[in-house]
């Protein structure tokens, strides 16, 4: 068991190091190609916006906080009411996974300091101007962490499918709204998923 945990920790921190070093470890040409891809995707999404779609994307983006807090809270309340220790333990697992993902995301943002798309490229016009820095996406990190942890705790298709559909929709909304690049979202999703996998021993 100790060997397995050590293996997970080594793999996890290798992923974290790779995410942190990605913006500066690649060659200038690779960075330029990645940036061009990111900008192209953002400009294409910007051109396809419509008022109804924008309203939906704003709504999806806002559900992130409610999902991250509401899912473990609902399990905790359900576990207390039904006197179900497994449900209470799973609530702790999901909450811990999301909290750790959030903390690591803040740390990586501080280290990388990538500028928001609309700051990096004046041709990118956001729906609203988000603060802080861009890499990785906090919404993607925490939503995928919640989705992965919930799916680990209750590995049924009717839990897994909606969970990842929600996390994917939240992450896509961040690009659509013009506040995160595709690579920001991808890194956030990897970070959140990896954290949930690392903390699997907390689930019942």
How would you characterize the overall build of this protein?
The chain has 204 residues and is mainly α. It has a single domain (2-21, 49-202), classed as Vanadium-containing Chloroperoxidase, domain 2, CATH 1.10.606.20. 78% of the residues lie in helices and 0% in strands. The chain has helices at residues 2-25, 28-47, 51-81, 85-112, 117-120, 138-153, 157-176, 182-198. The radius of gyration is 18 Å and the shape is elongated. 38% of the residues are buried. The model has no long low-confidence stretch (mean pLDDT 87). InterPro entries: PAP2/HPO, PAP2/HPO_sf. Residues 1-32 form the signal peptide. It comes from Mucilaginibacter aquariorum.
Which features does this protein show?
204 residues, mainly alpha, Vanadium-containing Chloroperoxidase, domain 2
Gyration radius, rounded: 18 Å
| Biggest sheet overview | none
Total of DSSP H or I helical runs spanning 4+ residues: 8
What is the CATH topology descriptor? Vanadium-containing Chloroperoxidase, domain 2
Order of helices and strands: HHHHHHHH
Whole-number mean pLDDT: 87
Give the distance, in angstroms, between the N- and C-terminal Cα atoms: 16 Å
Overall CATH class: Mainly Alpha
Could you write a compact summary of the structure shown?
By secondary structure, this protein is mostly helical. It is built from 8 helices and no strands. Residues 92-200 form the Phosphatidic acid phosphatase type 2/haloperoxidase domain.
